[in-house]
Design goal:
Layout lengths: L2 E5 L7 H9 L6 E4 L17 H10 L2 E7 L7 H9 L13 E7 L5 H6 L1
Parallel strand pairs: 1-2, 1-3, 3-4
């Protein structure tokens, strides 16, 4: 798959997914809903953890789009947990040459919120 959309909304068909669909209209892409994967906190190890499955999908993609709703002026908890876990498993420069996009949506963003993202 060339394009991977990582949806960190707990609602797989909500505003974040709709925003990604508008951005990626006319392009073939795969959606990975973090809410449908068991990803435990940094330092926790359980046999049913699916973190490496998500990492394998990221490694196979040429373009990565990460989408998140804004809750309490910050990224979703699902995405924060996932990002914490990415500390360590990647080699420096592993994603050189790939495209990465971030999309966020919220009810009433202000300029300082967008700057913080």
């Amino acid at each position: 798959m060339n394009i991977l959309f990582i949806n960190s909304s707990p609602n797989p068909h909500g505003n974040t997914a709709r925003l990604a669909a508008a951005l990626l209209e006319g392009k073939e892409y795969e959606t990975l809903n973090l809410a449908e994967h068991r990803i435990y906190g940094y330092g926790q190890q359980f046999p049913d953890d699916q973190f490496m499955e998500v990492i394998d999908k990221i490694r196979a993609a040429k373009t990565i789009v990460i989408g998140s709703p804004l809750y309490w002026h910050n990224l979703s908890g699902l995405l924060r947990c996932f990002l914490d876990r990415t500390y360590g498993p990647f080699e420096q420069g592993e994603f050189r040459g790939r495209e990465m996009y971030a999309i966020v949506q919220g009810a009433a963003p202000e300029k300082w919120m967008l700057d913080a993202c």
